[in-house]
Write a structure and sequence with these properties.
Length: 222
């Protein structure tokens, strides 16, 4: 069931990797609900980040936050078990990388994790119609995946609204997450459109006052 209050998920991608534990604790102490782990393979997206070993290290630094793993990798089925074993509570794959999306979603669930699907800005929501009833969350990309610190693509707001409408028809329990270019300034707009969970990398970790930024983002209401 979508949470009545807005969820914030700092993306560890924008943290100081020489200070992983303090970064995770910073997020937890700021009231973050999830910690978002961006996994990139240099193939589906033009960047390489980290794998299950680092997710496990991140998971070991928090007892409270949901470990939210975003797989921007080709053939994710090969690694889903590893990421769940590393401590991921929810695993999100890209529609664009999964020719057998239903099978992949069932695979995530078979390991006891929540299942999410993400779509790129150019991918229509209609590609998720059939799978929506099986999903725990949809992660709408509001930038082209690959890097933190990009600018929010304004047409994403209409996409959130459209997904919100699809949810009422197909899966009232679905969580709508939005990822890319989220700031204190646009948080209210995306929440009004129907987003439940806001991923924030740069806005949180590069903030002069991350706790205040998290509080501001969480204060956005429908
Ligand atoms: C982009 C990633 C995002 C990104 C968010 O490929 O999936 O999660 O790290 O970072 P900001 O909030 O800086 O856009
Ligand atoms: Zn992400």
């Amino acid at each position: 069931m979508p949470s009545p209050s807005t969820l914030i998920a700092p993306s560890i991608l924008s943290a100081d990797f020489t200070a992983l534990r303090p970064s995770v604790e910073l997020a937890e102490n700021a009231g973050a609900d999830w910690i978002h782990c961006d996994i990139m393979d240099g193939n589906f997206v033009p960047n390489i980040t980290f794998g299950p070993l680092l997710v496990q290290a991140i998971a070991s630094c928090t007892k409270k936050m949901v470990i939210d793993t975003h797989l921007m990798i080709v053939d994710p089925d090969r690694f889903i078990e590893d990421f769940v074993k590393a401590g991921s509570h929810q695993v999100t794959v890209h529609q664009e990388t999964c020719p057998h999306l239903h099978r992949t979603v069932q695979l995530i669930k078979s390991f006891g994790a929540k299942a999410g699907v993400s779509i790129n800005p150019a991918t229509p929501l209609s590609t998720l119609e059939s799978i929506l009833p099986d999903l725990d969350l949809v992660l709408l990309m509001s930038v082209n995946p690959g890097f933190g610190g990009q600018k929010f693509i304004p047409s994403s707001v209409a996409k959130i609204r459209q997904l919100h409408e699809m949810r009422s028809r197909l899966n009232p329990n679905l969580v709508i997450a939005i990822d890319g270019g989220i700031t204190e300034e646009n948080a209210q707009e995306v929440v009004s459109a129907g987003a439940d969970a806001l991923i924030a990398g740069t806005a949180f970790f590069k903030s002069a006052n991350p706790a205040a930024t998290a509080a501001k983002i969480k204060s956005a209401t429908r």
